[in-house]
Amino acid sequence: TRTPVNVTVTGAAGQIGYALLFRIASGQLLGADVPVKLRLLEIPQGMKAAEGTAMELDDCAFPLLKGIDIFDDPNAGFEGANVALLVGARPRTKGMERGDLLSANGGIFKPQGKAINDHAADDIKVLVVGNPANTNALIAQAAAPDVPAERFTAMTRLDHNRAISQLAAKTGADVTDIKRLTIWGNHSATQYPDIFHAEIAGKNAAEVVNDELWLADTFIPTVAKRGAAIIEARGASSAASAANAAIDHVHTWVNGTAAGDWTSMGIPSDGSYGVPEGIISSFPVTTKDGKYEIVQGLDINEFSRARIDASVAELVEERDAVRELGLI
Ligand code: NAX
């Protein structure tokens, strides 16, 4: 029998945590034949609610779930972790400046990065969901010098999935017909969903759409502002769809992209496409055998270039700000 994979989830008592843990335990994160042990990491105020969630996980009698432990100490929470989903973060509250937000999150992601460095398993893979996800991932990565930088990733898969869904609705295509969509840049309002290399049932998506006005004025803002639209409608931020995207991100990273397709992941830049090395930016990637590679050689038109550059500039500002704060 296989040794269980240790999966640490931070923010386990939060709304994404609640939508995520049952899917991990049922085998959807890593595969239907992979046993898992869950390590829930919370802050002291979240421990009781996490215990409640753990009771419900027990009550599912999931065949693949081989243990649940709950911690409020990051060193213990990341002990032996093979996969870490960093969901818990400090949200922006009213009147909070960007610097305050970044330093509050630095207080979470720096110690967590150090704890991953010192306690996680050698094959650790990290996905940061908690916002600002790209820069939180950078802070954690910088605090973990003994872990290969490429193991730290940030989630733009929800944006990727949202873009596929919007494109399918516009063109009447099935979501499964849409391939090679890309989210570039930051998981923020500046992100750039790129359909110029995407395909709809084998045809170039931009040609099928053939409507630059829709692209600029409807598609891009709808995808980028979808989070706010969900809050407006639901009275709470995206949770099940965010959890679903986290499942997709890790599942694709571990199990590979389909032939002829790619996905979007926030990853440390190697300088490809003019994105400054080291910042954690979203790229088109293929995955195989637990590793990812940036799709190379795409022709970037002027429309795309301006938007990629704008989002990357925001990431550079965030990096400079956390550098200034001594967080990296
Ligand atoms: P909730 O406020 O429901 O839950 C957050 C949980 O994290 C709480 O239980 C809290 O106690 C815990 N927590 C806080 N600090 C912690 C720490 N240092 N260690 C461990 N746990 C800690 O938020 P939820 O709706 O679950 O969202 C979580 C994060 O995901 C937020 O930062 C949110 O902005 C971000 N999102 C990111 C998305 C993405 O696409 N990258 C989309 C969805 C979501 O908005």
TrEMBL record:
Q: List the catalytic activities from the record.
A: (S)-malate + NAD(+) = oxaloacetate + NADH + H(+)
Q: What class of enzyme is it?
A: oxidoreductase
GO biological process annotations for this chain's record?
malate metabolic process; tricarboxylic acid cycle
Q: Which keywords does this chain's UniProt record carry?
A: NAD, Oxidoreductase, Tricarboxylic acid cycle
- List of residues binding NAD(+): 11-17, 105, 112, 129-131
Q: Which GO terms describe its molecular function?
A: L-malate dehydrogenase (NAD+) activity
Q: Where is the Lactate/malate dehydrogenase N-terminal domain?
A: 6-145
Matches recorded under Pfam families? Ldh_1_C, Ldh_1_N
The family database entries (SUPFAM superfamilies) matched by this protein are listed as: LDH C-terminal domain-like, NAD(P)-binding Rossmann-fold domains
| EC number per UniProt | 1.1.1.37
Q: Where is the Lactate/malate dehydrogenase C-terminal domain?
A: 156-322
Spell out the PANTHER family in the cross-references: MALATE DEHYDROGENASE
Q: State its role.
A: Catalyzes the reversible oxidation of malate to oxaloacetate.
- UniProt record similarity statement: Belongs to the LDH/MDH superfamily. MDH type 2 family.
Protein's name according to its UniProt entry: Malate dehydrogenase
